[in-house]
Structure formats: structure tokens, C-alpha cells
Amino acid sequence: MSDRYCVIGHPVAHSKSPAIHADFARATGQDVVYERCLAPLDGFSDTVAGLVAAGYKGANVTVPFKLEAEQLADELSPRARAAGAVNTLSFVNGRIVGENTDGAGLVGDIVRNAGFAIAGKRVLLLGAGGAARGAILPLLAEQPASLTIANRTLATAEALAARFAGPAAVSACRFDQLDGRFDLVVNATSASLSADMPPIPAHIFADGTLALDMMYGSQPSPFMAFAQGCGAATRDGLGMLVEQAAEAFAIWRGVRPATTALLARLRSSL
Ligand code: ATR
Asked: What is the pTM of this model?
């Protein structure tokens, strides 16, 4: 019988993960089935228990359960602990192992797909919520010259910067305190969800800046349109979506699927 996986969310009907994982399975010859699983808002842990009992091997976790998944896991990877959130569960010998592949997906998309080396660069992360937090450890692992976290609520950005203080220069500010230009600007705020953008100054962008929005859609987000108008190259979150899925697939199956052709197909279907 095929090994079974699913994505747990609420809502989950829109999720592209089943199509992505079916493509990975075909391409790598892995015998897996990947489904959608709608969990009740108050029933995440029961849903996971049901999947374990039914013999599933793992699950991806999406909105709004990533924080609950971190609480539920018996073991956490360093990336999941740093992110405070889990998007990938493996069910191994009755234990629930939690991983977070979102940040690695972001960095993989930037470095491999966009061909943009983060090492030595000035990096600006917009937002200090769950999405931003998951990106910090993988970004720092690339050894940027500096990482600035800018947020509407300064205290949240400061708390995050303090958590990750280490060899790299991590600092926090409000949007109106942003100073100088950045090589890489990542929008991890949820502003694009409401067709809005953080109030960032134009001077943070220069020719050669890469501006990436974690959201994706058929049209550029307001953030991407603004960045493009300021001379930046832009990228949405579709590549990150595919790369985080590839990371999860590699954790589960021990094989890393190719992503280039799939990303192009998903792009043309938006
Ligand atoms: P997620 O899990 O998507 O990161 P979250 O944890 O609720 O969601 O965090 C949302 C982030 O987007 C926060 O950094 C939030 O700023 P505050 O900390 O000040 O709330 C930011 N955000 C949301 N809407 C925004 C907007 N219109 N402009 C700027 N920042 C916004």
C-alpha cells in the first residue's frame, strides 16, 4: 500500500500541496498518496491523532495550525524551535516530529531559483510575525552582512532581533526609521492579504535589489509593484511554496525533487 501524507488546514480546499507532492512523487518514483485534510478549528490534535492511528507517515500543516503543531510535536528540529511554528510533521515509531521548512524554502528560492547569493548582503525583513520569525534562522545561516527586522510594532521586532542575536548584526526598527539601501528585501507582513503594503520608503531599494513578497497571486502585490517602480527586481512567494514542499518531501522520502519545471507550470496556471 502507498505511504499516506496530507496537508492539514482550515480552510484547505485552496491548497496546492496535493498537486505539488503528486508531481514530486511521479518525478522521483516514490509510492506516496497526498491528500487534503480539513481539521475543525478546535480539533487539530484529534485530527493528528486520527492520522497517526490510520497509519499516515506525515503531514504538512497550514493556517491556522502551525503554532499548535509546534506545541503538539514530541520532538522539534532547531529550525522549528527557532520559528516557533511547525509546517511539517513526521510520524515516526509513534512519535510526532516537527520541522519547519518555510524558511529553508524561502532561502532555497532566493539562492537556487533566483541565483541571488545572500552571503555578505544587507538583508531587510519586513514584519515580525510568524512568517518573519520562520525566515530568520535560515537567512542568518547564509551569513548576510546584516539583517534588519522592520515592523509596524517596534517592540515585536526588537524582541525578535534579541532572540536571534549572534555573530551576524541583527537589528530592529520601525518602517519610518529605515536607513540606507538593502540588497535583499523580504516582505513577511500579512499586508498583501488585504491588498496593502507596509509603509516603506523608496530609498531602501536600488538597482540590483531583490524584493520578494512571501505572498503570491496572478498579479504583482502592491509591495512588488512599488519595489519594481523603485528599480528592484521582484519575486513572489510561489517559488518559496514549491521549495518548502520540496524540503518536506526530502525529509519524508530522503530524495530531493527537482522544482524548476513544476514552478513554471504552477506559474502559468495562476
Ligand atoms: P503571519 O503568520 O502571516 O506572519 P502574524 O503573525 O499575524 O501573521 O504577523 C503579521 C505581520 O504583518 C506582523 O508583523 C504585522 O505587524 P504588527 O506586528 O505591527 O501587527 C504585519 N502587518 C500586518 N498588516 C500590516 C500592514 N497593513 N502594514 C504593515 N504591517 C502589517
From this structure: 0.95
